[in-house]
Design brief:
The complex is a heterodimer of chains A (309) and B (293). Chain A is mainly alpha-helical and 309 residues long. The relative contact order of chain A is 0.13. Chain A has helices at residues 2-7, 11-49, 54-60, 70-79, 90-121, 127-136, 146-155, 170-178, 182-192, 196-204, 209-220, 222-237, 241-246, 255-268, 275-295, 297-306. By secondary structure, chain B is mostly helical. Classes of the chains: A mainly alpha (309), B mainly alpha (293).
């Protein structure tokens, strides 16, 4: 960039141009650093606050420096039983968040790949109809149809498995979230971009549909599966509204659901809420998805930007 | 469909079955139920329901609460979309430009994507808290008395700020990959023809980014409408009171707090239609989307 500009100016003005360009760079970096700080500082403050005792935070707000309560607060956030029934602590919520994130990601990918395979690689009369039926689900987020969904899920009884509806069960928590077919759509796009010659060659070699899928298609889709998995895991982990409604039993609370409890105790205002612990729980709730996004960045970006095409 | 597709019948149906069963039970049934409920009025306990025709809908139009929520949703959506797109575009253009530390900046600017909306809302609550929020204290220093949860627009400001903060990373990622898809030859030609960085941006880069921008516009509108639920719920602390509320939040409040299945369903149907319109616009456009490969 700079070299092109410099070839076009005479030696006399070179020094001045160089200087201008350098200031240019300084301004660029200043803007980027400001942006990075905007993203970092609020979370840094939560982290710093998670090392303070409740009283100080209650008096002065969030802190910039660190105090000595870090271990105590995280210990309490993870192992102390809280809530209304004392049935849940941080570890339980962490486990539930993991189950939700993994169940959601794996469920979506398995169901989605199967359906996409059927639509793309088989001569089905109603493939187009099936695709449109599936595709329509992308249009309406769960939030829109939240009340009827809730009514149905809590009253449904599957062959006597769930006597009192599917509320307060992992299945009732995860399966309705899988109902929007983002993964199906995504894998269909991907399968369509796989060269025709592959299936032709496989047919000539006498591979059946199952063999072709397992030996050729799945290995080909590895990167895509990874990218999908990361996005879906983060999405599942961060779900809020549905878990809030469907799990009234505290032993099924996820971390994000636990955040709501904290805010409620804020709202009550009856006693000094334990801000340090609340901050610690917030940090615990955001750490796994943040680490995944940061470490698997390139896959994550690929999955995110490919999925819109 | 592939030319050399398999000709089986039973097997693909078996493959499709899980997906179709799930969407039938958990998508089409609730959606149909919402449409149906929107024409009925239930008594307080949900024992009986009477057919009331379009009454639930006419009640919405006459309800000042609903119209207020509609107004606020429009303002909220416009502001969140504008600011999160604008800031993200600025950062993406700069991140695309710098050579040193580009990867570090990318990481630092995108990681907030992974934070759940309610957690972001909790951070907002702590920063904007009426008596001990750090931003509140800062504003007090400048002589402005900021009152979260009491003053309507103060609460709205906190909601918008947190929602923008949470949405910048997504926009940043898309803008950056859009910028990096611009071929080197185009960039070099632009460099030779045009010395000024600003006019280069508006004449070359911006038009080339337009498809990405339009796609993001839809994404951001959808985000503002639906995905901000967690942020709003946290900031109003589950107490709607006379706080600003978006349409989606009202569906929830009227349905679960007010026990008004008919009214809530009617609002759901209105939102469904809105999303359908958005999607149609998006797809008509996406078909003409430009790719540089």
């Amino acid at each position: 960039m700079a070299d092109i500009t410099e070839t076009r100016v005479t030696t006399a003005t070179t020094t001045r141009t160089r200087k201008r360009i350098r200031w240019d760079h300084v301004a660029d970096h200043a803007i980027l650093i400001a942006g990075a700080l905007l993203m970092l500082v609020p979370v840094y403050m939560v982290f710093a606050t998670s090392s303070w005792d409740a009283i100080t935070v209650h008096r002065e707000g969030m802190q910039f420096g660190f105090s000595d309560q870090l271990g105590t607060n995280y210990d309490a956030a993870l192992f102390e039983y809280g809530g209304f029934t004392d049935a849940v602590n941080g570890v339980t919520m962490l486990a539930n968040s993991l189950i939700l994130g993994l169940g959601f990601a794996i469920g979506k990918i398995v169901v989605g790949m199967m359906a996409a395979y059927a639509i793309v690689y088989f001569r089905l009369k109603f493939a187009t109809l099936a695709f449109w039926m599936i595709f329509t689900t992308l249009l309406l987020p769960l939030e829109v149809r939240i009340l009827p969904s809730y009514e149905i899920i809590t009253s449904i009884t599957v062959f006597g498995l769930y006597e009192n509806g599917m509320g307060n069960s992992y299945a009732g928590l995860i399966i309705p979230l899988i109902a929007s077919a983002t993964a199906t759509f995504f894998f269909r796009q991907f399968f369509l971009s796989v060269p025709e010659e592959l299936i032709e060659a496989a047919r000539i070699d006498g591979a059946g549909p199952v063999k072709f899928f397992i030996d050729i298609l799945v290995p080909l889709s590895r990167t895509m599966i990874a990218a999908m998995f990361i996005i879906m895991f983060v999405f599942g982990w961060n779900q809020y509204l549905w878990p809030t409604l469907i799990t009234t039993d505290e032993s099924l609370f996820t971390l994000v659901r636990g955040i709501r409890q904290i805010v409620q105790s804020y709202a009550d205002g009856s006693e000094t809420p334990d801000y340090g612990q609340a901050a610690a729980l917030a940090i615990i709730a955001m750490t796994p998805p943040v680490l995944i996004v940061v470490f698997f960045q390139s896959w994550f970006v690929k999955g995110l930007t490919e999925s819109d095409k | 469909m592939k030319r050399a597709a398999f000709g089986h019948i039973g097997f693909p149906i078996l493959l499709l079955l899980p997906q179709l069963v799930i969407i039938a039970i958990f998508f089409y049934w609730p959606a149909a139920y919402a449409v149906q409920s929107s024409f009925y009025a239930q008594d307080m306990f949900g024992f009986t329901s009477t057919f009331v025709g379009a009454e639930n809908y006419t009640r919405l139009i006459d309800s000042t609460n609903y119209l207020n929520a509609l107004n606020f949703t429009v303002i909220f959506t416009v502001l969140v979309t504008f600011f999160s797109l604008g800031i993200a575009l600025l950062l993406a253009v700069k991140a695309d430009k710098v050579i040193r530390g580009a990867k570090t900046y990318r990481t630092l600017l995108m990681w907030v994507y992974a934070i759940a909306p309610p957690v972001a809302g909790l951070i907002g609550v702590m920063l904007f808290d009426q008596s001990r929020g750090n931003i509140t204290q800062l504003l007090a220093f400048f002589g402005y008395e900021y009152r979260l949860g009491v003053n309507y627009w103060d609460t709205a400001t906190a909601m918008i700020t947190v929602s923008v903060w949470k949405q910048i990373p997504v926009n940043f990622i898309f803008f950056l990959s859009g910028l990096q898809a611009i071929p080197q030859s185009v960039r070099e030609a632009a460099m030779i023809d045009n010395r000024s960085g600003t006019s280069r941006f508006w004449d070359i880069t911006f038009p080339l980014l337009a498809p990405t921008g339009f796609f993001l516009l839809i994404i951001n509108i959808t985000y503002s409408l639906f995905d901000t639920f967690g942020i709003i719920d946290t900031i109003v602390k589950g107490e709607p009171g006379n706080n600003p509320l978006t349409l989606v939040y009202r569906v929830y409040v009227d349905g679960f707090r007010g026990g008004d299945l008919g009214g809530s369903s009617a609002q759901s149907v209105v939102l469904m239609v809105l999303v359908l319109i958005l999607t149609i616009v998006q797809f008509r456009f996406l078909e003409r989307r430009i790719h540089y490969t």
